[in-house]
Each structure stands twice: as structure tokens, then as C-alpha cells.
Write a structure and sequence with these properties.
By secondary structure, this protein is an alpha/beta fold. The chain has helices at residues 16-34, 58-69, 90-98, 114-121, 137-151, 169-180, 209-213, 237-244, 248-251, 274-277, 285-318, and strands spanning 47-52, 73-77, 104-109, 125-131, 158-162, 184-188, 204-206, 218-221, 259-261. The strands form two sheets. Strands 7-6-5-8-9 form a five-stranded parallel sheet. Strands 2-1-3-4 form a four-stranded parallel sheet, with helices on both faces. It is globular, with a radius of gyration of 20 Å. The structure holds N-carbamoyl-L-aspartate.
Length: 319
């Protein structure tokens, strides 16, 4: 069994073989998504509920599309109009939804650990679509697929993750995944935006952008996560762009064929120069979005297979 998970809560519990299995399956979905008839019925009869307690464009849209392309019945729970606004707790909301027999629950929540907690209370597969500053596993997997396709491999690459590392679940999931696949990860940003204890992940830390980008194969930019900051972490956005914003001068330090990534949403002129973001020879930002749908299809396909197997086993035990 090469993908042995009940939920997808983070990259942390995944074995490198499971990561490769998921990416290989996602490749087949990239092909399907590029064809005219984009349907595979592997989730037919299953119910997928998307619960987003935090704003999202790409992630929610691609989970919805992924479920629909695989034939699931997809329901987007509109949190803004739900009983959550009337004070219902996360667990009560989850138990209510659980009583409707979903098979796949996709959850984004502002608190780190909330999705893990919820997974303990329901009897379906749970996919973490981002919890606080903890993990965002499908983002790291889609980034990995983009890198593997552009660089031809997913090992022994120098990857510079730049900007607001401290508040970023994207950075966390990526550095765990890239570490597991034996890449060299550099974290680049001002000391105020570096999390505590980064050394334990075996990353190199730089506060000088040009030094951090030297000979990098991959340059991954991050948004300043102002919604998670209380207080001032940078002198000003102008100053931040000057020191840490990706422009052609700083990018010239990386390898000539280095790719530029960004999970979106981007703040042009803050962490990235618009000209670099739009440079089709360097930026793979649109490919990341494309890979997002394929990776989410693969993740839900694998989890649904495991769910069906577990249910069959349980039914046989009862018989
Ligand atoms: C990221 C997120 O929500 O963590 N976006 C995304 O999922 N594509 C990063 C961000 O919000 O800056």
C-alpha cells in the first residue's frame, strides 16, 4: 500500500513514497484536465463538503472543481451565512455536518490545529485546506508537482523560500516536504519574520536576499500575512520591497534557469515586482494553479479509496 492515510492533515505524517504516489497520480489528472471531457467517476456517489472559515479563492475553487471532475456531490458550506456566526462551536458544526454522512470534508480554519481536532470527531476523510500558520498540505504538494515538472526532479535542488516565513503555513508545509525529498531549503527574510526554532528543520537562514538567492533553482515568494500579525513586523512596505521584494536585480543572483513561484494571492510591489510575476520565462504562478486542481483530485481519489476499503473491512467484521 503506497498511500496509507485516513486524512490529509499535513505533510508531516507522509512518507516520501506516499508523496511520490500522490504526485504520480496527479500527473494523470493533469492530462485529464487538459482534455475536452474532464470527467473520471472515481468519487461517484460520494459527498464532499467544503468548509472554509477563512477567505480563499484558488484553494476553494480548485477543491470544488476537483470534486466535480471526479463525480462527487460537492457542497460548499457558506460559513458567513451559517450558524457559526450565531456562536456555534467548530465541533458542533462538524458533528452536524457529520450527521449528513459526508465522505470527504475539506476544511480551512484560522486556528492552527483546528482541522486535526475536527478530524477526531467525524467518520469521513478530512483534508486540511490550511489551518492557521500550521500546515497547508495540498499547497506544498502542488508546489512539488510544479517543481518536479519544471526541473525534471524533486531532489537535490536549492529552494529559497522568501518573505514572511513566521506566519506562513505554506512555508511550513513546503519546508517539511522539500526536506523529506532531500532538497536544500533556505529561508530568506528579516529576523522579525523568521519563526523560532527553524534550525530543527535543517534549513539555512538568510536575512540578506541576494545571498539567500545565490545559485537557487527555485525562488518561492510569500505574501506578508498581515491578518496574522499583531504589531509592526516591518518598517514599511516600501522598505520591505527594497530589501526583500523580488525584482530582476535580486533574481539575477539565482541560477539562470531558476523558476519563480508564489502561492497567491500576490501583493505586487510588496513581495514581488509585477514584471517578474508576469514573466512567462521565469514565473510558474499560473502552472501552480493548474497543478492545484490535479493534486487535489489525486488526494481525494487516494483518500476515497482508503475510506471505501476501511468501510468494507468494518462491514465484514460486523457480518
Ligand atoms: C495561501 C494561504 O491561504 O495559506 N494561499 C493559498 O492557499 N493559495 C497563502 C496566502 O494566503 O498568502
Amino acid at each position: 500500500m503506497s498511500f496509507n492515510q485516513r486524512h490529509l492533515l499535513g505533510i508531516e505524517p507522509l512518507h516520501p513514497v506516499e508523496i511520490t504516489t500522490l504526485l504520480d497520480l496527479a500527473e494523470t489528472y493533469v492530462e485529464l484536465n487538459r482534455s475536452t471531457a474532464k470527467h473520471a467517476e472515481v468519487l461517484a456517489g460520494l459527498t464532499q463538503i467544503n468548509m472554509f472559515f477563512e477567505a480563499s479563492t484558488r484553494t476553494q475553487a480548485s477543491f470544488e472543481l476537483a470534486g466535480k471532475r471526479l463525480g462527487a456531490d460537492v457542497m460548499n458550506m457558506s460559513v458567513a451565512h451559517s450558524s457559526v456566526k450565531k456562536g456555534e462551536t467548530l465541533i458542533d458544526t462538524a458533528l452536524t455536518l457529520n450527521a449528513m454522512h459526508p465522505d470527504l470534508l475539506v476544511v480551512r480554519h484560522p486556528s492552527s490545529g483546528a482541522v486535526n481536532l475536527l478530524a477526531e470527531k467525524v467518520n469521513c476523510a478530512v483534508l486540511n485546506a490550511g489551518d492557521g500558520r500550521h500546515e497547508h498540505p495540498t499547497q506544498a504538494l502542488l508546489d512539488a508537482l510544479t517543481i518536479r515538472r519544471k526541473k525534471g526532479r524533486l531532489h537535490r535542488l536549492v529552494v529559497a523560500i522568501c518573505g514572511d516565513i513566521a506566519h506562513s503555513r505554506v512555508a511550513r508545509s513546503n519546508l517539511i516536504l522539500l526536506g523529506k525529498m532531500e532538497n536544500r531549503v533556505r529561508l530568506v527574510g528579516p529576523p522579525t519574520l523568521m519563526p523560532m526554532g527553524v534550525a530543527e528543520f535543517g534549513c539555512e537562514v538568510y536575512d540578506d536576499m541576494k545571498a539567500g538567492l545565490e545559485d537557487a533553482d527555485v525562488v518561492m515568494m510569500l505574501r506578508l500575512q498581515k491578518e496574522r500579525m499583531d504589531g509592526a513586523f516591518i518598517p514599511s512596505e516600501r522598505e520591505f520591497f527594497h530589501r526583500y521584494g523580488l525584482d530582476s536585480d535580486k533574481l539575477s543572483r539565482a541560477k539562470p534557469d531558476a523558476i519563480v513561484m508564489h502561492p497567491g494571492p500576490m501583493n505586487r510591489g510588496v513581495e514581488i515586482d509585477g514584471l517578474i510575476a508576469d514573466d512567462i520565462n521565469r514565473s510558474v504562478i499560473q502552472e501552480q494553479v493548474e497543478m492545484g486542481v490535479a493534486v487535489r483530485m489525486a488526494a481525494m481519489d487516494l483518500l476515497a479509496q482508503n475510506l471505501k476499503r476501511a468501510r468494507l473491512k468494518a462491514a465484514l467484521r460486523e457480518a
